[in-house]
Write a structure and sequence with these properties.
The chain is α/β, with parallel strands linked by helices. 30% of the residues lie in helices and 27% in strands. It has ten helices and 15 strands. The longest helix has 21 residues, at 266-286. Residues 10-320 form the Enoyl reductase (ER) domain.
Length: 322
């Protein structure tokens, strides 16, 4: 088979379309002949040497894919050769074949083609698991940073489906997109987003924040929380170290948590995937949650896909097509 490999860490030019050994599933695993692969910012970090795969995972980039099952390992009963699947991966997606634990593969949403489905599983699993973790409730105010990206586009719609009110930050050119998705407060992050948010909420702030930025936003995120507010950090695009005002956190009875989906045990990831299939896929199939805008790039041209995502110019999801 062929796959994207790295000629050392660095820029997109380090990526190579090369021939590598075929894969075969072990016990409890399935092999997927890849149709498409979702591109995530974690892939860019791994390419640069900042986000190594968990022990035992493939060093090939790619955390989600879609395709057709073409080989089944011993002990797998719920899949047959020829079944369509989307899969949540610890790595290995940028390849013509992917081997994954059977529990991390689920059928695509009804009515969604395999290419579009490739860009859904990672964002759905990330948002669902994290909003479950911080118990976002109907009627609460929710803030997601980066509302026009893959995570943000999904999170806005999913939070609205849960009955929450939504605020988001994005670049000025993308605010209209966020508003169409259902965000009630849309803020240009290049301005003083905290001041704008507090004005829009009559100085009350929000109950829950989903943050992809990391260290740079920690202090402002804490200021934006209401009493008993919850901040969940899932990214570190703008740094890994920041100072925390513990007194402010105590006074607000606030909660700060941080999670990574990639390194979770297989059993946890399988449970999350099952929740996605049961709770999220019906929302997608019915149109309650719409697909993010897509930019499709051939898999051998993954270098271009990384440049597009890093530019910040696109809205929605970048998908590699096999």
């Amino acid at each position: 088979m062929h796959a994207i490999t790295l000629d050392g860490f660095g820029g997109p030019e380090k990526m190579r379309w090369t021939e590598v050994p075929d894969l075969h599933p072990g016990r409890g695993e399935v092999r997927i002949r890849t149709t498409a692969v979702g591109v995530n910012r974690a892939d860019l970090l791994q390419r640069q040497g900042f986000y190594p795969p968990p022990a035992g995972a493939s060093e090939i980039l790619g955390l989600e894919c879609s395709g057709v099952i073409d080989e089944i390992g011993e002990g797998v009963e719920d899949w047959q050769i020829g079944d369509q699947a989307v899969a949540l991966l610890s790595g290995g997606g940028y390849a013509e074949q992917v081997v994954v634990p059977a529990g991390q593969a689920i059928r695509p949403p009804t009515g969604i083609d395999l290419i579009s489905a490739a860009g859904l599983i990672e964002v759905a699993a990330t948002v669902l698991s994290n909003l479950d973790r911080v118990h976002l409730n109907s009627g609460e105010w929710f803030l997601v940073h980066g509302g026009a990206g893959g995570i943000g586009t999904f999170a806005i719609q999913y939070a609205r489906a849960l009955g929450a009110h939504v605020a988001t930050t994005a670049s000025a050119a993308k605010l209209a997109h966020c508003r169409k998705l259902g965000a009630e407060i849309v803020i240009d992050y290049s301005d003083d987003w905290l001041t704008q948010l507090m004005m829009a909420t009559s100085d009350r702030g929000v109950d829950v924040i989903l943050d992809i930025i990391g260290a740079k936003y920690l202090a402002d995120n804490l200021s934006a929380l209401r009493d008993d507010g919850r901040l969940v950090i899932i990214g570190m695009q703008k740094g890994t170290k920041a100072e925390l005002n513990i007194a402010k956190l105590l006074n607000k009875r606030g909660t700060i948590t941080a999670t990574s989906l990639r390194g979770r045990p297989a059993a946890q990831k399988a449970a999350i995937c099952q929740q996605v299939a049961e709770r999220v896929w019906p929302m997608v199939a019915s149109g309650q949650i719409g697909l993010a805008p897509e930019t499709r790039v051939p898999l051998p041209d993954a270098e271009e896909a990384h440049r597009l995502l890093a530019s910040g110019d696109i809205i929605g999801k970048v998908i590699l097509t096999a």
